[in-house]
Amino acid sequence: MDVPERLILSCAACGGEAASVVIAPPGQPLPQPSFPSGVLSLEEWWVDLTVPQVGGTAYTVDADAAEALRRAVRSGDLGYLRGLGFPIAGSICPDCAAAYCEKHLTVAEVTKGTVAGRGTHFEAVCLRGHRSTFEPL
Hints:
Blueprint (H helix, E strand, L loop, with lengths): L4 E6 L6 E8 L20 E7 L3 E7 L1 H13 L2 H6 L8 E2 L4 E2 L5 E6 L10 E6 L4 E4 L3
Antiparallel strand pairs: 1-2, 2-3, 3-4, 5-6, 7-8, 8-9
């Protein structure tokens, strides 16, 4: 892959966009809106993960991790993607093994109580009523 690639995780209920993954190889423009226009990745691969109702984050990965992420999105390996954590976990229901868009998954920030003894976390409720939690990075 020589140019940035944008992959979409589709909603199981309507086919809309549940999340997007942009993978940018070295020497290519970094994904927006996480980076200003024209900024180039130098010697590293960059990945931008975005879930419409939660937000996004970008980080560097090595070539093997970029390829593993690309394969997971293309094959629909939601277990692997959910294991990546915030924010992509916010679009995947572990009980349904399905991804949902913002119309079919409710995400709320929870500051009362903690997950694993930590502060703020998020709670997601899918279309079928399954509840799951995840923490911001």
